[in-house]
Here is the input.
Amino acid sequence: MPVPACQTCHDLITAERDAESVHDYSRATDCRVLLRRHHTHGHQTPPDQNP
Here is the structure.
């Protein structure tokens, strides 16, 4: 789902993984929401429509 070479996508994925590793599932969910929002507004294509 992350767009290659997009630093924001990379940072959000990393933050999600870090949150899950310390069992902070609320923060991990926040990261997923922010990633989806970033895809919608930052890439102008919803993540489920990326090739």
